[in-house]
Amino acid sequence: MPIQVRIVLLIVVVGVVRPLPCAAEEAGTPQLHWEQKAEQSIALVGQDGVVWQFNFGAEQPKPYFHPLGLPGLAPLTVDRPPDHAWHHGLWFSWKFINGVNYWEHMPETQRPLGRTAWSDVHINPHPDSSADIVMELTYSLPDGPVVLKEHRKLFLSAPDELGQYWIDWRSDFQAGEADVTLACTPVPPAPGGVAHGGYGGLSIRYARELDERRASSAEQEAEFAGDGIHRSKSVAFDYNGLIAGREAGIAMLDHPDNPRHPIDWYAIRSDVMSYLNAAFMTYEPFDVPARGSFTLRYRLIVHPGRWDAAKLRSEYQEYAGR
Predict the structure, then answer these.
(1) DSSP code of 130?
(2) Is residue 256 part of a domain?
(3) N or C: which end of the chain has fewer CB within 10 A?
(4) CA nearest neighbour of 63 among 196, 143, 171
(5) pLDDT (tens digit, 9 = 90+) per residue, 287-296?
(6) Which CATH number belongs to the domain containing residue 133 in this structure?
(7) pTM as predicted
(8) Coil, strand or helix: which one is 312?
């Protein structure tokens, strides 16, 4: 008869973490448990540290995931790097809404001028190490009317025997009482375009320690220009490398019902930055009429190994139901 060990669920009372016994696993299976801080964070934790953590405290400029990685492996993401303090592991941020910046921080406040606010955060961690996260978000100027609302629903699968898991991300947006224009810093040849423009939306800032970096679309291995930038249109994109000597990466898949599918991807591989963005507004602003709505859906897969175009196509076909 196999030896039985117990993993624990964690419940929180006024910020204090307490264990609650739950289902048993056979000996040899990595032990995972939940650590939850009231109104601050939820983390899936293994024997060697945090596998993933979702941060949503009111003091944060945006809700975000960090660290994000594989069981027993150093984090694949970085939060608030010195070169871009507004980068937060895996996070979502508009760049411009009606010309107002929701991305970079203002020096005097260390927050963007445009405010992202959230409420009604409901987190449901399951005994099998999967979780659901649902929340409401609003976008506005300080003390101004809400220009855009978002209902965000996330599902995180349990890690499999290799540690791999996915995040299904769905954001339902609705404009307020006025028309909304979502835009990015333009890229050439648009007037005022700059080579590093075109970003906004769902982004990943990979760890500085990620070495021997490679990337691929669902069609071919990505090539980076002399400035370290890559842009291509595809249904999916993977960014991978070596972290503490082990191959790992995070892939992002674009749902077929998304606006402008297949989207343009924006990736950076420079001396200081490893970055991936689902950049569906790179070349043209996105207009939403007053009270109009739209939905963005993605699947992010945190995986061991290096993925090529064929593997990405296979994962995309499963996600898209094709």
Answers:
(1) -
(2) yes
(3) N
(4) 171
(5) 999 999 999 9
(6) 2.70.98
(7) 0.90
(8) helix
Position 17 in a domain = no
Question: Which tokens go with 186?
Answer: 């333009």
pLDDT in tens, 185-244: 999 999 999 999 999 999 999 999 999 999 999 999 999 999 999 999 999 999 999 999
Q: How many structural domains comprise the chain?
A: 1
- Report yes or no on 162 lying in a domain: yes
Q: If we measure between CA atoms, which residue out of 171, 214, 178 comes closest to residue 312?
A: 214
Q: Kindly report the number of other CB atoms within 10 A of residue 271's CB atom.
A: 5
* Domain-located, residue 267: yes
Q: Which two tokens stand for residue 236?
A: 């999916």
Using CB atoms within 10 A of its CB, is residue 198 exposed (0-12), middle (13-18) or buried (19+)? Answer: buried
**How far apart are alpha carbons 108 and 47 in whole angstroms?**
41
Q: Which two tokens stand for residue 112?
A: 């963007």
CA-nearest of 317, 307, 301 to 250 is: 301
Domain assignment of residue 312, given as a range = 74-320
